[in-house]
Amino acid sequence: MSKILLCVAAIAFLSLTMDADAGGRARAAGAKPNAAGGTTAGAAAAGSGPNGGRFARGGTVATDGQGNAVGASGGAVQTANGGTAGRAGAFERNADGSGTRTGGFAASGSQGNVQSQGSTAVNADGTFAGSRNTQATNAQTGNSYDGNTTYSNEGVSHSGTCTNAAGEVVTCPKR
């Protein structure tokens, strides 16, 4: 699984280093039988615009012919004014119905930055549990948020803390 994420990250990195004046797009996709008796498939795309924005994305999935599958995808973007964002995710699905899913994203720009990561696991009997953690910082004020959510078939729990630029805990704004 980590090799898949590494490949997706490499595609994103290489595409973000393309010449911004290229103003083009590229796409590749394919599928073929694999040695495990299943199919391996993947796709990737990248491009850049005339004003300097660029993107890259890719994904892959592999099955084994026994009802198991793994996959991963990711993407990255850079705006013409310097904002950046990226995401990556991976899954594993087993023939017995169990599986996992992990994913995260991050973005940064003139207004601040945010990042979030989470995972979910489901058992063959249908019980599940997962969590997500998110942090965000406002570039103008320096205020930040750190939140954590956990969930399962038993319920949901959330906690969040906001701090000001000095690191003091403050009341989180309601929206």
TrEMBL record:
Residue numbers spanned by region Disordered: 28-50, 81-158
Superkingdom, taxonomy of origin: Bacteria
Annotated Polar residues bias: 130-158
Low complexity: bias regions: 28-48, 108-119
Keywords in alphabetical order: Signal
Stretch forming the signal peptide: 1-20
Protein name in the entry: Uncharacterized protein
